[in-house]
Every structure is written in structure tokens, then in C-alpha cells.
Amino acid sequence: MSENENAPYATSTVTNTAETPGMAQTPFSLDTVKKIRTIHLERAKAEGEKFSMLTCYDFSTAQVFDRAGIEMLLIGDSAANVMLGYDSTLAITLDEIIPMVAAVSRGAKRAMVVADLPFGTYEQSPQQAVASAARLMKEGGAHAVKIEADARMADWVQALVTAGIPVVAHVGFTPQAEHALGGFRVQGRHGTADRVVEDARALAAAGAFCILMEMVTAETAERVNQAVGAVPTIGIGAGNTADGQVLVWQDAMGVRQGRMPTFVKQFAQVGQLLEDAARAYRSEVRAGSFPADEHTFN
Ligand code: KIV
User: Fold this and answer.
1) What is the pLDDT of residues 73-112, one digit of tens each?
2) Rounded to an integer, what distance in angstroms lies between the CA atom of residue 45 and that of residue 40?
3) Is the pLDDT of residue 20 over 80?
4) Within 10 Å of residue 182's Cβ, how many Cβ atoms?
5) CA-closest residue to ligand 1 atom 4
6) Nearest Cα residue to atom 8 of ligand 1
């Protein structure tokens, strides 16, 4: 890390005008941050600046999203579905996700790399969570971990934070608890809002640097934002009040086919583009027009 990697970005501990009289204050903007760290997300929230997160599972895509300025890359357990073809996120193991985390870490120069703790790798005890998270950081190079949790797991978050591991706490609809929650259901309805708000409050108090809320009503999301104070929030299917947003990239870019959840917006049709390009390649190979002279060694 270069010495002035984050200069001139003032952080909560380095406020330039106060400490350097006469020096002009550099306005904060995430656009000027060379390497995204937790302090920058806190600062962004304080300044009312929004940030973006996308899932990512490989080196080349990490390079593309990093160039695009996406602030956070999440190696989510959604890799189980979109990368490995499992029916459920519950199936993915640490050994399967770690090589993806390592590949994304090698591709991302600026973005913060956040890795999911897969189902079955942390529930037994805070110690188990620390051991699994340490593998994601040591072998995968992750900068932070995400844990699906509720208020009962505040001790887990505290143990991770005590071990020096930045934590994103995932509340609301938590896909690993699909069976316990009665299926894919929006949370915050039918008297469940208080629980979601309390989960977020307890996990933020335990030291999570970010709260991610999935599939909650807009009103619940607003209450979570209020409850966690200065801690940044990220939404997916949580309306527009969170400080950041996340989507599974294959959904956002139109790679996945079929019915999409209503909270997904497709920003491109990459699946169709790839299919068309593959068809064009096949046609030229079959017609004998590829490779042409310019692709041939003489
Ligand atoms: O695994 C994942 O991709 C996630 C996001 C949907 C937040 O948890």
C-alpha cells in the first residue's frame, strides 16, 4: 500500500482544515477514493453520497466492475445458483467459494471485496464464524465478510469484529433461512417489521460496519436506516432509502433468463449479446470464413 493511498481524502480522524490551518478543504467524493475502505463508506453516508455493490465471482468480471467504479464487490453465496448451478444457496461450501473470492480479489484494485459466509460454516459458534471468516480473508483475500444474522447472533458479529474482521450484517429476508422464514417472503409485513429493525439495531451495535437488508418493505427499510444511525445500509428489494444498493450481476445485466424478482432492473441484455456473438462465431467457423488471413501466422 502506498503511503498516501487515500490522500487527500479526509476521514473522520483526519479533518484537513481543522488540523492544517490555511489549507483548503478537499470536498469528499467516493469518485476520488483510490481504494474503498470502511471509513469511506461511513464518510459517504455522512455526506449523503450513495454507493454501489454488485455480486462478482471471477477475475475478469472483477476487473470490468472495478473499472466501472463499483464500490463493493460481493462474492455472495448466490454463486451456488449462478456459477455452480445448484438449486439453493445452501449447497455452496467454503472450499467452493474461496477460489472465487481469491479471483475477485486479484481483479479488484479499488473496490472493497466482501465474501459471504456460506450456510453451515458459522452457525455453531462465534469461534466457528471467526475460523471460516479468517479463511475467506487469508486464502481469498477478502476485505470483509457478510453474515446472514439476526439479533441472537450479535455475539457472532462482536467476535468477528474483535478478530479484526469487518462485517456486513445481512437482515430482512435471509435466503439461507428460506425454510425457517416460510419461503421467499418480503419481510416487514404482518407484524415482522419490529423484528427486522431490532435485528439491524443489535447487529450494528455489535460492530457491523454495514447493514444489508433484503426484501423488506420501504417503511421497514426507513426504520432500519433510522435505527442504525451512522452505519451505512445497503438495500436489495428495500426501496430507495438505503445508502447503497446491491444486485446479483447476472440479474442486473440480463444474463439470467426467466422471471426476475420485481426489485431487479436489467441494465443490459448481456445474455442475448453473448448468445448472438456465439452464434456469429459458430456460423463463421462452419462457413470457413474464420480464421481469415489476418488471424493466420505466415
Ligand atoms: O448471495 C448474494 O448474492 C447476496 C445478495 C443477494 C445480497 O446475498
Assistant:
1) 999 999 999 999 999 999 999 999 999 999 999 999 999 9
2) 9
3) no
4) 8
5) 76
6) 76
Q: Tell me the CB-side half-sphere exposure of residue 281, using CA atoms within 13 A.
A: 6
Distance CA 113, CA 179 (A): 29
The topology (CATH level 3) of 32-247 is: TIM Barrel (3.20.20)
Grid cell at residue 165? 474482521
Pocket of ligand 1 (CB under 6 A): 55, 74, 76-78, 116, 212, 214, 236, 246, 248
Q: Which cell numbers in the block locate residue 90?
A: 445452501
59 close to 36: Cβ distance less than 8 angstroms:
no
Can you name the residues that pair with 74 across neighbouring β-strands?
55, 114
Question: For 63-116, what is the HEC assignment?
Answer: HHHHHHCCCEEEECCCHHHHCCCCCCHHHCCHHHHHHHHHHHHHHCCCCEEEEE
The verdict on whether residue 71 carries a ligand-binding annotation is no
Helix (H) / strand (E) containing 171? strand 167-172
Q: How is the chain split into domains, by residue range?
A: 32-247
DSSP for 188-240, please give it.
STTTTHHHHHHHHHHHHHTT-SEEEEESB-HHHHHHHHHHTTTS-EEEESSTT
The vertex-207 CA angle with 111 and 115, nearest 5°, equals: 35
60 has pLDDT over 60:
yes
Does the annotation list 265 as a binding residue?
Answer: no
DSSP assignment of 184-202, as one string?
S--BSTTTTHHHHHHHHHH
Residue that the C-alpha cell 469484529 belongs to: 161
pLDDT tens digit sequence for 248-290: 999 999 998 888 999 999 999 999 999 999 999 999 999 999 9
